[in-house]
Design a protein that fits this description.
Layout lengths: L7 E4 L5 H11 L3 E6 L13 E2 L2 E2 L2 H4 L3 E5 L5 H11 L4 E4 L5 H4 L4 H7 L4 E6 L14 H7 L2 H4 L14 H24 L3 E6 H6 L5 H8 L16 E5 L5 E5 L3 H11 L2 H4 L7 H6 L1 H12 L4 H10 L4 E3 L3 H6 L1 H5 L3 E5 L5 E5 L23 H7 L4 H9 L5
Parallel strand pairs: 1-2, 1-6, 2-5, 6-7, 7-8
Antiparallel strand pairs: 3-4, 9-10, 10-11, 12-13
């Protein structure tokens, strides 16, 4: 028995934010019916590196889902969505605000059909406010939230995080909202709408950014690999030109770090016993650590810090990840058999539940792979389905 066994989810939208939320639910047993356009399908199918014409990313984003190909601009397809919603628990969409209403699939219409429906809506700026109608992607959300301003070396062009972090954070907030709404529904018997804006999801993770501005007028600036206001925590270059991340910002950890470096003069300095004192002299501390790491290889530094119980680590490439024994032991590298018989490594499933863990039950579907089966489930006959296919409404 999976944690979400019996939960019925209809996934609309495409690419990252909505589908990632649905994927998370599918990993834990939800029956996710993904609606995508006939012929082309979700654009993610063609993003990044392709294998036999399909993105290998697709195999992660859409595992455990069923695909129904519908042209949502056609009234007949819209009616099929309404029929699917009748006994669905959750509907997920990430179109621009107003699109669902234009198809007659807005919250008022769908909740009238199924008052228990929980509807997750992910968009760039949310369903309300002066920016609601602006197109918004994750990278724009990352900039608006303040994150992009901080991801740079001082005085240099801000850079993006190398993955679609804005979309993913919004997805995870959406999943949290769904689970809370499901819990509340047990009492009220009613569904509700969850409104997640990409920029708000990132902003929610910006820690002390706003209260520091409110209290002190402080505008946090880019600080490269350092963590402003917390010391020492930085990336340090080693003798072999690799880098080690060292987080020596705990009071006792700092003393152990300095002792390992042969710098007990700093470790026992009364002015450096707490974070506030260390922040004032962070340049001096970073210079001392950098001098020490420059005399040793990455492995030597890590071995010494592991022995001293100081949090530290190398900067992994994906090749490091694939070979790492801890990733392997935790089941975070899974190998699935593709439809052509080849093996593909994909990320494992989190969070890890002790009794009802998630699982990889089926590979990502081809476009419309499950159209006939799903439409049969809502009462359409083979002849009716074929007639819709002949018109290009379904595939």
């Amino acid at each position: 028995m999976s944690a979400l066994n019996g939960l019925k989810v209809v996934e609309l939208g495409q690419l990252i934010a909505g589908p990632f939320a649905a994927k998370t639910l599918a990993d834990f047993g939800a029956d996710v019916v993904k609606i995508e356009t006939p012929k082309t399908g979700d654009p993610l199918r063609k993003w990044r590196l392709l294998k036999d014409g399909t993105s290998v990313w697709w195999q992660v984003q859409s595992r455990n889902k069923r695909s129904v190909a519908l042209d949502l601009k056609d009234p007949a397809a819209q009616d099929i969505v309404r029929q699917l919603v009748k006994d669905a628990d959750v509907l997920i969409e990430n179109f621009r605000p107003g699109a669902m209403e234009g198809w007659g699939l807005g919250p008022d219409a769908l909740l009238a059909i199924n008052p228990r429906l929980i509807m997750l809506r992910i968009s760039g700026y949310g369903q309300t406010g002066p920016y609601r109608d602006k197109p918004g992607f994750g990278v724009v959300a990352e900039a608006m939230s303040g994150l992009r301003h901080l991801t740079a070396e001082p005085g240099r062009v801000p850079v993006r995080v190398g993955v679609s972090i804005g979309d993913t954070l919004a997805s995870l907030h959406g999943v949290i909202g769904i689970l809370m709404a499901l819990q509340e529904r047990q009492t009220s018997g009613l569904g509700q709408v969850i409104d997640v804006a990409l920029y708000e999801a990132v902003f929610n993770c910006m820690e002390s950014l706003l209260p520091e501005f409110s209290a002190f007028g402080a505008v946090r600036e880019a600080a490269g690999s350092a963590l402003p206001g917390i010391a020492p925590s930085n990336a340090y270059r080693c003798k072999d030109d690799g880098y080690v991340l060292i987080a020596g910002n705990g009071d006792s950890i700092f003393k152990r770090l300095m002792h390992t470096m042969g710098r007990d003069d700093l470790g026992h300095d009364p002015a450096l016993t707490d974070n506030a004192g260390r922040v004032k002299r962070v340049a001096e501390i970073d210079a001392a650590i950098g001098t020490w790491t420059a005399q040793h290889s990455v492995e030597q530094v890590l071995d010494a810090l592991d022995a001293a119980a100081v949090p530290a680590g190398r900067i992994y490439t994906v090749a490091d990840i694939a070979a790492d024994p801890h990733y392997q032991a935790r089941g975070m590298i899974q190998h699935v058999q593709m439809d052509d018989g080849t093996s593909l490594a994909v990320p494992g499933i989190i969070p890890k539940l002790s009794r009802t863990p998630g699982s990889h039950r089926r590979n990502a579907p081809t476009i419309g792979q499950d159209t006939d089966a799903v439409l049969n489930e809502i009462g359409l006959t083979a002849a009716q389905i074929q007639a819709l296919k002949d018109k290009g409404i379904v595939a």
